[in-house]
Amino acid sequence: MRLVVQNDKSRARGVSRTASGTSSGTWARGGLAVLLVAALASGCAQDTAEVRGAPGPQPLQAPPARALDTYASRLHAAQAARTAAAERWNLGQVPLTAPPPPAKKPEITAREGFEVDGQEDLPPVFTTVPTKERILFLTIDDGAEKDPAFLRMMSELKIPYTVFLTDDEIKDDYGYFEEMQDRGVTLNSHTLSHPYLPALSYAQQKHEICGMQEVIEKRYGKRPALFRPPFGNYNRDTLRAAKSCGVKYAPIWNEEVYVDHWEYREWDRDLHPGDIVLTHFRGRDDWDGTMTDMVRRFLDRVTAEGYAVARLEDYL
Predict the structure, then answer these.
(1) Could you report the per-residue pLDDT of 108-125, keeping only the tens digit for each?
(2) Cβ atoms within 10 Å of 275's Cβ, excluding its own
(3) Strand-pair category, 262-264 with 308-310
(4) CB-CB neighbours of 152 under 10 Å
(5) What's the CA gap between 256 and 127, in Å, rounded?
(6) Which of 254, 298, 314 minimizes the C-alpha distance to 95?
(7) Which stretches of 19-110 are DSSP H helices?
């Protein structure tokens, strides 16, 4: 809608008095105002059909400052909870938080000297994940000890870990590991009965490895992609059998932690970025302490050396 208004000179020439004493110019201005309002109303009504609103209700967006405040508050609350948990479990320091895993996963290959014939087509055996981040991976074998305090400790401290289970050790209480899985832990295979695999035939090894894959799939709903050979011993048949059962990786370890000491694979007897650390489900029947004592020893050491604990599966 276009509105045309005369200029001031045209209006001045048209001024005359009416019978009531008001000027025709005054009346014209008043009438023009009325017409202007009417025209605007009319024009708005006519143009309504041409206006298109956004479909549906529009979401309200919080101001950036408020969003940052909320994020900061969440971080503060998480750190406060972690600090309280560290005090509750008598840790020397609050465990460090691992950085986000890389968007592009590192290439995992068999450790040099740990290959077998035809290795390129078989699951790699490795002891360290290639990374420059100061992170370690905690892994726990067999499942013999089923300590509820351990589950609470790891959940409250938000410490990730990966387990490799043996059916002979877990079949008396499958429910314990179901609760563990519900807390976000991945359950993997460590054979049915924990034998020395290189002494077995291919068929026997396949039975041990695939049999445990089936137990985990049946009990916990997912067939594992990771397998750890008992004692860290294997041969080509071991990896062939593992591949036939759906295994993609065969991680072993670079350090082993007990309740009262550490053991090392490397000559320098030290920790390295990306190292896989082994421990076992054990309690006072086997150790001079509990699993929570072992975790305390582990965390106090790695935190003091500036390492955080990351989730192994996030890097594979």
Answers:
(1) 999 999 999 999 999 999
(2) 22
(3) unpaired
(4) 15
(5) 11
(6) 298
(7) 24-47, 64-88
What are the φ/ψ torsions at residue 263 (nearest 5 degrees)?
Answer: -125, 150
Contacting residues for 316 by C-beta, under 8 A, at least 6 apart: 105, 108, 129, 225, 226, 248, 249
pLDDT digit string (tens) for 194-240?
A: 999 999 999 999 999 999 999 999 999 999 999 999 999 999 999 99
Alpha-carbon gap, residue 257 to 277, rounded angstroms: 7
Closest to 170 (Cα-Cα) out of 181, 184, 160, 154: 181
| Residues 96, 307 contacting (CB under 8 angstroms) | yes
CA angle, residues 64, 66, 69, in degrees to nearest 5: 110
Q: How many CB atoms lie within 10 A of CB 313?
A: 16
Three-state secondary structure call for residue 226: strand
Which residues in 108-143 are b (16+ Cβ under 10 Å) and which e? bebeeebbeeeeeebbbbbbbbebebbbbbbbbbbb
Map residue 163 onto helix, strand or coil: strand
Which runs of E-coded beta strand occur in the chain? 125-126, 135-142, 162-165, 186-189, 250-251, 255-257, 262-264, 276-280, 308-310
CB distance 230 to 192 below 8 Å: no
CA distances from 229 to 43, 239, 263, 302 (A): 82, 9, 19, 26
Rounded CA separation 40/27 (Å): 20
| End-to-end alpha carbon distance in the chain | 66
Residue pointed to by tokens 């991680």: 251
**What is the residue type of 199?**
A
